[in-house]
Amino acid sequence: MIMECLQRKKEPVLGFDVDLFSFDDALQYVHSHLKENKGMQIVTINPEMITLGKKDNDFARILNGADLIIPDGVGVKIALKIKGVNQENIPGIEFSKKLISLCELDGYSVGFLGAKEEVVQKAAQNLRAEFSNLNITYIRNGYFSSEEESIILQEIKAISPRVLFVALGAPKQEFLISKLKKEMPETIFIGVGGSFDVWSGMVKRAPLVWQKMGFEWLYRTIKEPARFKRIFPALPLFLVRVIMESLHEKLG
Questions:
Q1: Residue 1 has pLDDT above 80, yes or no
Q2: Is 167 exposed, middle or buried (0-12, 13-18, 19+ CB in 10 A)?
Q3: Structural domain boundaries of the chain?
Q4: Which pTM value belongs to this model?
């Protein structure tokens, strides 16, 4: 069986496991779960999530309890490189798009939860245009109160899309997925952050050359200066911690 061939190999970064699959193998790993009617939680981990997980034990448990943790962002790639591991970056938005393509090809239903109403609706519209046979069974914006959450959980459970894409931003999307996973063990969940904004056409990705160089985060920071406080000094401090951890491991 495929899953027997694709065993997870993980490397910890500041106490958080990262799967060392290639892009294609990670997608094949998810595909094997789809074919065997198994559910999973996919986390697209980045330095901000790891930093937050160091401060929040509940979030840390969710991250390390995920069924697939792909390195999303040049920060994690550099961190692994520091530890002597060559691992390709797997952008969550590209991985999710490939997963959508796979769902269309094999006839799996999908659902979209998150972002503003006009954004999620437009994203779904654009994806339907791109993937004409895509079976979208659930669409819901991400603006709801804690009181409404239980109703939405029951709503999603009743419809049970095979794959649910959740765009609420970390850590909110991971906490919600963790709740849903307990009720829907055969569903595949993935947190996709701001992907709906891009799929709707309301936000543009960095030019391809920036993406290939691993500087998409820098491009977005230039375009959205408000992101600067999130990136600096968080990213440099994250890498310093990784270097210190790596030295400690080498020195025993």
A1: no
A2: buried
A3: 2-198
A4: 0.94
